[in-house]
Amino acid sequence: MAATSATMAVADVSSSSYSKTHLLKSSQISFLSNHLHKHRRCAFRPLPPTQYARISCSVAPNQVEAPIPIQAEDTKNKPECYGVFCLTYDLKAEEETKSWKKLINVAVSGAAGMISNHLLFKLAAGEVFGPDQPIALKLLGSERSIQALEGVAMELEDSLFPLLREVSIGIDPYEVFQDAEWALLIGAKPRGPGLERADLLDINGQIFAEQGKALNAVASRNVKVIVVGNPCNTNTLICLKNAPDIPAKNFHALTRLDENRAKCQLALKAGVFYDKVSNMTIWGNHSTTQVPDFLNARIDGVPVKEVIKDHKWLENEFTEIIQKRGGVLIKKWGRSSAASTAVSIVDAMKSLVTPTPEGDWFSTGVYTNGNPYGIAEDIVFSMPCRSKGDGDYELVKEIQFDDYLRNRIAKSEAELVAEKRCVAHLIGEGIGYCDIQEDTMLPGEM
Predict the structure, then answer these.
(1) Distance from C-alpha of 305 to C-alpha of 297, rounded to nearest angstrom
(2) Residues 168, 135: contact at Cβ < 8 Å?
(3) Are 61 and 171 in contact (CB under 8 A)?
(4) Which fold has domain 255-426?
(5) Pair type for strands 104-109 and 182-185
(6) What are the domain boundaries of the chain?
(7) Catalytic-residue membership of 39
(8) Hey, what CATH class is 96-252 in?
(9) Which of 22, 252, 286, 311 is catalytic?
């Protein structure tokens, strides 16, 4: 290897008091290649079912050239770490790092899945927070996926992301969510044959109740949470109800993929490029009751209904295309969307850390208390939002409604109120009772 590659250290990961938790913590790493000489490839042995994996290198310890530390550290209190992320390098000669920001902690559940496989590398490359923002990734999986998580960490090592300073993996949310400033909750049980919507609400609801409790206990008090695992609106409600010490406004259900799909279809119909479509709102639940709002959307600054004269297409075909896009993709591709979902998560995060363009807005599922639209309170509903780029948002007030839009919104609202009754036992409101009459799960969840 070239002389500028980083030297890998020998690291033995010892057992922990969490006998059922395969958690590999990390310490801060800084890359300064001109202080290092040779790169050694490490071999990662398969993880035994009941104990920690041992990490070993192909060179003897006395052959590994130690990096120059920034300062003396108390090694007794230093947390256990993963591979190359165990090392600390001298940053003093790296002038450009003087402008770098404070490390930001991002926790991701379902981190061994297909969506995360696309998402993590976008995060590590700086696509969300920019080229001067160091990042720590805290990856949550299950006992079944722990070895796959090790593989993810190895790929992150091999990608040489200069912004990626820490990687930790584990199966205990109380460990992985420690000090998290962003939590991207992707992991959830998929819908399988014979599994009713009510059953899925209960099974996944229990997952998000536990993760809400963990976030409440150990995450940053201002953590931003984006729930992707379905049914994501009600899972978000469950999560926030189990995290009373975190502002309810900080929780989001991902509907950005639906917004992106709607923008694509409007652009295709109008014969323009995507960037000409703005002010696109997805109202309601992330289900087939969702409402892509063409009344308030614009194409090149002009209301959509003035550009696309075929209003029957807008009311029927356009809406159905967006609602069923996931199912069509499965038939073509053989699996549900992963890459486009990861892109939409990045878009959703960027919408909160980047000021919204003047006059525009974005869609996200948020807590309805205090909303100006007359939508039932105490549910999570996708609505139009703006941000100043500080991680917070405000609801857009200058919205037009007609009978068509209100009737569609009311149907999605009723569905979410019914879902809330199903999970009453998970949000501290008594015994859950399901009376959902229609199965509106998105095709991609079947």
Answers:
(1) 9
(2) no
(3) no
(4) L-2-Hydroxyisocaproate Dehydrogenase; Chain A, domain 2 (3.90.110)
(5) parallel
(6) 96-252, 255-426
(7) no
(8) alpha beta
(9) 286
